[in-house]
């Protein structure tokens, strides 16, 4: 099977929707109208919103694919089957983890949390594996579409555990690497390339010497007796050729070429089905699993909003009038029916919050949770609000 990384080149920009939303203040007005006239909006966020926290995105101006044409994410099949690829992955991930632990939410994560608190959005789905939404707003329900970096799981017994103790094990098994990591952090001008998944690339490093442990539950399970071979320190023995053995530990994030877990896919679809509009922030939707959620909303006749610096995959499909042009109701509207703006999501949402809090207040009964139970949804009176100026 040939797997291609989708859209590693920047996607073309898209004209603003409505056409008046070409400046930051008018974009804020349009997004405010979009949220005010929706019953329950679902946020779908991507790597673009974590750039301000120091994590690179994939396809932005300083994105990993843009700057490093050689960059290849790890493929699921390689990780599962090849011992050498696991050593490479864990080495890079080991080196990047300390920096990742220090990453903090930025104004976009905070704004999303405030929108949820104020009842202007019903919930959120993120493609990001950095836990920053949860760090910023622990009580906001979030679907982590592509999993998380902060937890690991065993591919055999499916035991989940925290990443931090696993990192300690990696330190213990790799003392030379541990020293190298110390040096790395005390040498600020070391040529490091950090990837969006927290891994880092250091030129000239031999990954083959890196050691990783198997799942302890599987190691102690007599069913797998002698199938998992460890050295005297408890590290996995080198496996030549096909290295598909029991007890392989993997971060819970979804690797390239890996299917989403059924329950996560279902949860995301249920959120789309329960919302009446979807607002994409900081994503080019290049990943099909994210794009199809927006398409699903569109096919159900729901409203679509996009705040992203740069183009979005196949976005004509969201605005088409049936003849290959952007429909007049979007172009000439005020943002109520759909919005597409190219600004930093944090700048836009901070402005939007100012508007919403001023004219709509924090009405608790606006809060419409995204679920299908049908009982917790309250009918809310929608007001057509003319916003003269956002700022
Ligand atoms: Zn296990």
TrEMBL record:
It comes from the Eukaryota. One of its GO terms (molecular function) is histone deacetylase activity, NAD-dependent. Residues 21-362 form the Deacetylase sirtuin-type domain. Keywords: NAD, Transferase. InterPro entries: DHS-like_NAD/FAD-binding_dom, NAD-dep_sirtuin_deacylases, Sirtuin, Sirtuin_cat_small_dom_sf, Ssirtuin_cat_dom. Pfam families: SIR2. Belongs to the sirtuin family. Class I subfamily. This is Deacetylase sirtuin-type domain-containing protein. It comes from Arthrobotrys flagrans.
């Amino acid at each position: 099977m040939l797997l291609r990384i989708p859209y590693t080149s920047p996607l073309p920009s898209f004209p603003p929707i409505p056409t008046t939303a070409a400046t930051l203040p008018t974009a804020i007005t349009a997004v405010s109208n979009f949220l005010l006239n929706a019953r329950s909006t679902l946020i779908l966020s991507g790597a673009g919103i974590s750039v301000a926290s120091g994590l690179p995105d994939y396809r932005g101006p300083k994105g990993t694919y843009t700057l490093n044409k050689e960059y290849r994410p790890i493929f699921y099949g390689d990780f599962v089957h090849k011992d050498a690829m696991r050593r490479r992955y864990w080495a890079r991930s080991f080196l990047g983890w300390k920096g990742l632990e220090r990453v903090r939410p930025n104004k976009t994560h905070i704004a999303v949390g405030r929108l949820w608190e104020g009842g202007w959005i019903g919930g959120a789905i993120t493609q990001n594996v950095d836990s920053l939404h949860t760090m910023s707003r622990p009580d906001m329900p979030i679907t982590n579409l592509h999993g998380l970096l902060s937890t690991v799981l065993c591919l055999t017994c499916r035991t989940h555990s925290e990443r931090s103790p696993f990192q300690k094990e990696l330190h213990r098994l790799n003392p030379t690497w541990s020293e190298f990591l110390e040096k790395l952090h005390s040498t600020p001008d070391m040529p490091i390339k950090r990837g969006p998944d927290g891994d880092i690339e250091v030129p000239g490093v031999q990954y083959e010497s890196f050691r990783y442990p198997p799942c302890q539950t599987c190691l102690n399970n007599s069913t797998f007796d002698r199938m998992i071979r460890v050295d005297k320190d408890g590290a996995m023995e080198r496996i030549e050729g096909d290295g598909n053995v029991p007890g392989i530990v993997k971060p819970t994030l979804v690797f390239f070429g890996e299917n989403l877990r059924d329950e996560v896919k279902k949860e995301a679809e249920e959120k789309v089905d329960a919302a009446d509009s979807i607002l994409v922030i900081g994503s080019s939707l290049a990943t099909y699993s994210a794009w199809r959620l927006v398409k699903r909303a569109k096919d159900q006749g729901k409203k679509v909003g996009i705040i992203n610096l740069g183009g979005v995959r196949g976005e004509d499909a969201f605005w088409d009038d049936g003849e290959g042009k952007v429909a007049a109701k979007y172009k000439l509207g005020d943002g109520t029916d759909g919005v597409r703006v190219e600004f930093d999501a944090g700048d836009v949402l901070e402005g939007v919050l100012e508007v919403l809090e001023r004219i709509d207040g924090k009405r608790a009964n606006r809060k419409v949770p995204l679920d299908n139970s049908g009982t917790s949804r309250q009918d809310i009176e929608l007001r057509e609000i003319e916003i003269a100026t956002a700022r």
